[in-house]
Design goal:
By secondary structure, this protein is an alpha/beta fold. The chain contains 14 helices and 20 strands. It is 27% helix and 22% strand.
């Protein structure tokens, strides 16, 4: 970026987080089929650049949406840098470069702002895209709903479970449409799998597993570039921290006196607990959301989180190895695991008593010029219940019927397309509604709490809160095992008090307690 342009970007630097009263009144424009939906973007960092590009594309292609406002706490920077191997990469983030990207005048102080409340005041904003750091998601989503805006909020939906529940309530109370930006939910694969499960084709769902593995020598999230243009003159640091704001009387972030400006914290905030949840909330929430959607479960009953900072000693708070084990009252378990220091994954599967669903890409044909066509979907792998002890089966030796999901093109664009259709029709059942977002986030956040507190946790569904675990989970299941002595149907997604699926061999009749020295089997 030239020095002249840089000065233009810097000349409108905000003077801090002035206390402004929220003047946006609940406003909801009735959007007709031919009306253009105005989208305002709050938090125009790296991830939001794709959102800006998609809405720009929709405007160009006359698809009924256009960017009308941007908000960020940082003036921003645009320029090229050396990406290694003689290659150049382009860097564009922050307020003024993003305004320029979508055709807004950088001197337009009404539509190019550092305070999100000014953006919510704009009647031309119909939809708010929230792509801020996690600790701001709840506040912005709630205030947007109160202001009559529909919401596209990046994942994770919030930073705490209490915030997630508050967002669900605000969206419902204000009759707003919301989607959480878990882009994999745009893939029909997960609904197709859930349809199969609901039909009973894999029997009782017992266990699922998924993972997210990476390996970067610079440290996870340290690939977010720091530039000298990030400084207290260009960043509204108090606004970034959010200590002057709250959700249900809980401050969003730390005070400036407790956390002075630091480029690493600003640009790589996912490494620090006050602003996010590391792998648990940045990566696990992707996998957890689509897996619980496919399984047909929501809030877990019991969660344990493990892991640690085992190798990435670079000043971070969050672990580089992590695993969550979530048990559900429906009678199944979800395992989510990852490391940032090795990128070899485990298979993503859902295991039922009758079959396993294995999610993966598979070659389904060839193009006209002979190139392979690879589609994402799932394989149906039937189970044999007659096997006994032996060597575990190898994944590469198993083959089954493959069902392609059918997603064509960019998943984020597909998520936006469906969301905007829902905005027009006032259909609150988006591909990733806040209720699903809250359930998935609560699962991974319980993993964070379990890891940090060193204990297992329960979810109290009646009171909608987390409690400490005790022995009741194991003991109630042990008692259930002793009560059930008759086999029940093995097909269908039964869950809960479904009964036993064991067909005991004849010799099992020889079991049983001897009372007064008498053989219960009469042998």
């Amino acid at each position: 970026m030239s020095e002249v342009n840089r000065r233009d970007f810097l000349k409108t630097t905000a003077a801090g987080a002035a206390a402004l009263s929220l003047t946006a009144k609940s406003y909801s424009r009735v959007i007709g089929a031919n009306d253009t939906i105005g989208v305002g973007f709050i938090g125009v960092g790296g991830r939001c650049q794709e959102h800006l590009g998609i809405i720009n594309k929709f405007k160009k292609d006359s698809k009924g949406a256009e960017p009308v406002a941007v908000c960020d706490v940082w003036d921003g920077f645009e320029g090229d840098f050396d990406a290694g191997n003689g290659k150049k990469s382009h860097y564009l983030q922050g307020l003024y470069p993003s305004a320029k990207k979508v055709g807004l005048d950088v001197d337009d102080k009404k539509h190019v702002v550092k305070d999100f409340r000014k953006l919510l005041d704009l009647k031309e904003v119909d939809v708010v895209c929230c792509a801020t750091p996690d600790h701001w998601h709840a506040k912005i989503s709630i205030e947007a709903a109160k202001a009559g805006k529909d919401v596209y909020c990046e994942k994770p939906m919030t930073r705490t479970i209490e915030e997630a529940l508050a967002v669900v309530k605000a969206i419902k109370d204000n009759n707003r449409v919301m989607t959480v930006g878990v882009q994999s939910m745009a893939d029909p694969t997960w609904k197709l799998a859930n349809d199969l499960i609901k039909k009973g084709d894999i029997g009782h769902v017992a266990q699922a597993q998924t993972s997210y593995y990476r390996n970067y020598i610079g440290g996870q999230w340290r690939y977010y570039r720091l530039v000298k243009e990030m400084n207290p003159k260009t960043v509204d640091w108090p606004m970034f921290l959010g200590n002057g704001f709250d959700v249900d009387n809980v401050k969003l972030g730390p005070a400036e006196k407790d956390m002075p400006f630091d480029r690493a914290i600003f640009g790589q905030w996912r490494c620090y607990w006050p602003f996010g949840g590391g792998m648990f909330t940045d990566l696990f929430v992707h996998q957890t959301t689509h897996m619980i959607a496919a399984m047909g479960v929501r809030f877990p009953a019991r969660v344990v989180g493990g892991g640690g900072v085992f190798l990435e000693y670079d000043g971070r708070d969050v672990p580089d190895v992590a695993t969550i084990v979530a048990d559900y009252n429906e009678g199944c378990q979800l395992i989510v695991t990852a490391t940032m220091i090795n990128d070899y994954p485990i298979q993503e599967v859902i295991r039922g008593r009758l079959a396993t669903l294995k999610f993966d890409y598979k070659e389904t044909g060839k193009t006209a010029d002979g190139k392979p066509i690879r589609e994402f979907g799932f394989e149906y792998l039937p189970q044999s219940m007659k096997s006994g002890p032996g060597i575990p089966k190898r994944l590469e030796n198993l083959e089954g019927k493959f069902t392609p999901g059918g997603l064509k093109g960019n998943d984020t664009e597909a998520l936006w397309t469906h969301f905007l259709e829902c905005v027009r029709s006032r259909n609150r059942e988006t591909l990733c509604p806040p209720e699903l977002g809250a359930a998935a986030f609560s699962t991974v956040n319980m993993g964070v709490q379990s890891y940090r507190q060193g204990k297992a946790l329960y979810w109290d569904n009646m009171r909608q809160k987390v409690t400490d675990a005790d022995a009741t989970w194991a003991t109630k299941l042990e008692e259930r095992s002793k009560k059930h002595d008759k086999p029940s149907q093995i097909t269908g997604w039964q869950g809960g008090e479904s009964g036993s699926v064991v067909e005991p061999p004849d010799y099992q009749k020889l079991g049983g307690a001897w009372v007064d020295g008498k053989d219960p089997a009469g042998a």
